[in-house]
Structure formats: C-alpha cells, structure tokens
C-alpha cells in the first residue's frame, strides 16, 4: 500500500514510507507552490504497479473514478429510499416534516464544507491523498449512520459523510481529467459520463431500499442500504494504492521525472520516459505550470472586481447555471421521490420504490444523450430548451395533483418521468461545465469554487424546505418551480454567451468586447475541439 510513498533523501538515504505519510500532515513546506521547475529530480516515487500500464491502467483509473461517482449518486438517493419505511420512522419517532428536511438537507451542508476543505488542502495532499482522506471520512460517516439510534446521531453522521463526499467530488474529477489529458474527447464528454454515472446511483439506492423493505419491520430494512455505501468505499480504498498520482500535480510540485513516468505508464507497456509522446506531454505540462506561476494566484478582491476582464460578471454568470440546477426543482423530487409517490398519489411503499427505481434507470440512460450533441447545439440552446421543458412539466405536475383523480395521478407520474428526462438533456450537463468555460485562468479556481459553493447551499435550501412546503402548499409548490424555470429562458438568452467550441482565450475576448452585460455571442464557435479541465459534478 505504501509503495508509492518512499522518498530518497540527500546522500541516498531512504526515508520510510510511514515518515513520508506523516510528513503529509506535518510538513507545511509541502503545501506551498514551488518557485522554479527543474528538469531533474532528487526524488523518485514509483507511481503505480508495474503490471498496470496503458489501457489497463487508464481503465483502472476510470473504474475507480466511476465507483466514486456511483457512490455520490447512491448517497444522494439512499435516504429517499428508506425515509418512508415503517422501521425507519419508528426508530426516529415518526419525524416531522421539519425534521425530515433537516435529516435530508444537512448532508449538503457537509458536502459544502468538504468542498471548501478540498479547495484549501488539495494542493498540499495531492489528488490521491485527498481522495484517500475523503473516503476514510465517509467510512466514519457510514458507520455512524448505520448505527444511529437517535436523530441527532443520524444528522451528525450525514454531515460527516457529506464532508468526505464533498472532498471527493472536488478531487476525483480533477484527478481523472489530469490523468486522461491526452486520452479523452474533452472535458464536456467526461462531465456527461460522470453525470450519467451519478444518475445511476439513484436507482441503485432505490432498488437496495426495495430489496431490504421486504423485512420492513426490522431496522435492517433501512440500515442495510445505508451500510452498502461501504462496498463502494472498500473498492476505492483497495485500488488507490496501485494507481498513480496526477502527473500535473507532480509537475506543480517540481517532480517532473515522476510526472514523465506516469505519462509513460499511461501510454502503454514498454513506453519509456524518452518516448517522443511522453517528452511532448512532459514539456506541455511544464509549460502550463510555468504559465500559472507567471500569472500568479488572484486575490478574492480581484475575483469580485468588475475590471476590464469582468471578473465579477463571470463569477455571477458561472454561479447561475449551478443555481438553475437546484432551483429548477430537481432535488425537490429526487431526494424524496418514493415518499412523493406514496403521499401525493397514495401508492404503496413497495410500488413507490419500484416506480422510483424505473425512473432512475430511464434518467441514467437519457443522461448519456448530450454526449452526442452538446458541442453541436451549444450550451445556450440546450439550457433554454431544457428550462422551458422543465417549466411545462412542473406546471403539468401541479395541475395533475390539483385534479386529484386516478387518471391525473398517473399523469403526475408520467410528467415526473418526463421532467427528469428534459432536465438531464440540458440543465444537468451545462450547469457543471459552464463556469469552468468562462473563467480566466488567473481567477478560475476561485470562481469555480464559488459556483460549486452556490450549488451546495442552494441544494441545502431546496431539500430543507421541500417537506414543509409540500405540507403547507401542496401542488402549489410545483407552480413555483415552473415560474423559476420559465425565468431561466430570458436570463440565458440575454446574459449568457455561448461557450461551445471556444477556447478560454476566445471567451476572454468575448467578455472584453461585451461591456454592458447583454451578450451578442449566441452561436457556437468554429473550433473543432476545445479542452477544458473538469469540474465538480453532481445534481
């Protein structure tokens, strides 16, 4: 497990892996950016098992990242799968709508905290090290959730689990993007794949809840689906020691020889660090890091300044799709889907779980479709079309609930299915890529972090208010979501420039030329391929 942690000291003295691991926590010098790049290193760390090279290594990294994305989706959906079970409600004294909202939403506060922690510490501990810590935090949270006997323990445990997940959702996409830089079809494709895997976590958690609900009078019915998170964590923790650190992170810490070794292993068995492809990748990452050093890191004051680069406008525009993702009402349904069917139209617990699981599978399948046309149609068209369709679905959901007939109740189910489909075709993929596509390099990390923070805080508010709003407003709640979705269409049309097939430099020019907020850049660019770094994902 510690084969990647050995370190050679001056005089060829070997420092123990345990000492190196200890240094990750205690040596502050390791957290700072290096000030110069050298072509030769005094240290070398074997980054991976020698048997893992080429497509096998890339597939292993993809499998671990995919497992992390599945865990994210599973963790978001699992409470909705168990909160309506009789044994769960008996265990926690039939929680009120207010307490249901707190138990569900507090997880998002944990994710928010975890994302901030990741932003502050990822450069120090590396991508792998941060993911490792995030997983162990989630292990603790899972144990505390599974063993909960009081609502206070369950709430605390969901915060802990959320912190670990927040750390992972920041670091896993970055690790994957930086490892696959020369092998993927662009960050937009990666983000769509990640979103689809997260979507698959929902039906998985629902069917786990359905399977265990057969023993609905035992606490096993709700404890087992929550404990099942540990299976994903075991897979990730078992595989991580055999996989390499991000070559970009290694280069950022003046470890270019190790970065070159990782590039060689990613290319295939027998490829050496002197291979032309590896040399080119090494030179490219070296040049990119040097450029970052020249640019320096922007202060928070600069991020919120509306200068010629329009940093403040970009931050607000970048946060907008993240917030649209939440205020369209998706998690008002997704977090409580089985009990929504159970309470709104009187379905049994078993049938509610079955329908929720089928909806989740359809959601997963449809969420792959943007992979094929998001670059062709552009972000604006997909975002506006999706928002308009979501508005229609929410309006019809409200009408069907108000009619309260057998036919209208099943129509409510149909429009819920349709809502998830149209959401996944536009708002979902665009919300997670737009901020990283418009922020300039100097302020990009902070700008994207603020966007992700707005997502988690909006998620918390939406999930927290939903049980109480349903109790007091009933079908009228969905009218509110419909109005909000309708507002996204003109907002996008007037203020959001198109980013498809445009480089970061192209977007800099767009914001320099459009000084008054109303955009004139409404069509995709002309570049064949634009590669942007990945961002945190979710819904």
Automatic annotation (TrEMBL):
InterPro entries reported for this sequence: MFS_dom, MFS_sugar_transport-like, MFS_Sugar_Transporters, MFS_trans_sf, Sugar/inositol_transpt, Sugar_transporter_CS
One Pfam family from the record: Sugar_tr
Organism: Imshaugia aleurites
Molecular-function GO terms, alphabetical: carbohydrate:proton symporter activity
Alphabetical list of Gene3D superfamilies matching this protein: MFS general substrate transporter like domains (1.20.1250.20)
Transmembrane segments: 61-82, 102-122, 189-210, 222-243, 315-339, 351-374, 386-404, 410-435, 447-466, 478-496
Entry's Gene Ontology cellular component terms: membrane
Entry annotated with the keyword Electron transport: no
Domain Major facilitator superfamily (MFS) profile: 61-500
Keyword vocabulary terms for this entry: Membrane, Transmembrane, Transmembrane helix, Transport
Family from the record: Belongs to the major facilitator superfamily. Sugar transporter (TC 2.A.1.1) family.
Cell location: Membrane
Name recorded for this polypeptide: Major facilitator superfamily (MFS) profile domain-containing protein
Topology of this chain in the membrane: Multi-pass membrane protein
């Amino acid at each position: 497990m510690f084969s990647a942690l050995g370190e050679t000291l001056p005089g060829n003295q070997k420092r123990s892996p345990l000492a190196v691991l200890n240094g990750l926590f205690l040596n502050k010098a390791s957290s700072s950016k290096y000030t110069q790049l050298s072509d030769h290193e005094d240290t070398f760390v074997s980054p991976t098992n020698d048997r893992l090279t080429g497509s096998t290594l890339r597939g292993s990294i993809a499998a671990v990242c995919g497992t992390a994305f599945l865990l994210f989706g599973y963790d978001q959906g699992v409470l909705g799968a168990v909160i309506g079970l009789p044994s769960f409600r008996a265990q926690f004294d039939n929680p009120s709508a207010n307490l249901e909202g707190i138990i569900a939403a507090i997880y998002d506060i944990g994710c928010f905290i975890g994302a901030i922690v990741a932003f502050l510490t990822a450069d120090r501990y590396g991508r792998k090290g941060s993911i490792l810590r995030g997983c162990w935090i989630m292990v603790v949270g899972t144990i505390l959730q599974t063993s909960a006997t009081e609502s206070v323990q369950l709430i605390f445990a969901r915060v802990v689990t959320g912190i670990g997940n927040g750390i992972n959702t920041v670091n896993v996409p970055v690790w994957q993007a930086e490892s696959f830089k020369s092998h993927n079809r662009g960050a937009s494709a990666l983000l769509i794949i990640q979103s689809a895997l997260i979507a698959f976590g929902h039906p998985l958690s629902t069917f786990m809840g359905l399977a265990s609900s057969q023993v609905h009078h035992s606490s096993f019915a709700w404890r087992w689906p929550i404990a099942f998170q540990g299976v994903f964590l075991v897979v990730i923790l078992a595989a991580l020691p055999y996989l390499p650190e991000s070559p970009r992170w290694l280069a950022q810490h003046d470890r270019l020889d190790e970065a070159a070794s990782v590039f060689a292993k990613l290319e295939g068995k027998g490829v050496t660090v002197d291979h032309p492809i590896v040399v080119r990748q090494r030179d490219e990452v070296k040049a990119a890091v040097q450029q970052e050093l020249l640019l320096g890191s922007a202060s928070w004051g600069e991020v919120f300044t509306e200068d010629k680069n329009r940093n403040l406008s970009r931050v607000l525009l970048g946060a907008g799709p993240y917030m649209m993702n939440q205020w369209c009402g998706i998690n008002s349904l997704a977090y409580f889907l089985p009990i929504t069917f159970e309470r709104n139209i009187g379905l049994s617990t078993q049938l509610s779980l079955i329908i929720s699981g089928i909806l989740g599978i359809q959601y997963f399948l449809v969420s792959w479709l943007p992979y094929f046309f998001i670059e062709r149609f552009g972000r604006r068209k997909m975002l506006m079309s999706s928002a308009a369709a979501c508005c229609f679905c929410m309006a019809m959901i409200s009408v069907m609930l108000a009619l309260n007939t057998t036919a209208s109740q099943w129509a409510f189910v149909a429009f819920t299915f349709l809502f998830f489909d149209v959401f996944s075709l536009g708002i979902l993929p665009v919300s997670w890529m737009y901020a990283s596509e418009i922020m300039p390099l100097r302020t990009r990390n902070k700008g994207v972090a603020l966007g992700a923070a707005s997502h988690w805080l909006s998620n918390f508010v939406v999930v927290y208010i939903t049980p109480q709003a349903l109790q007091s407003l009933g079908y009228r709640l969905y009218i509110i979501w419909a109005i909000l979705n309708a507002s996204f269409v003109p907002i996008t049309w007037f203020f959001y420039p198109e980013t498809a097939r445009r480089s970061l430099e192209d977007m800099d020019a767009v914001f320099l030329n459009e000084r008054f907020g109303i955009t004139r850049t409404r069509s995709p660019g002309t570049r064949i391929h634009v590669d942007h770094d990945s961002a945190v994902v979710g819904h």
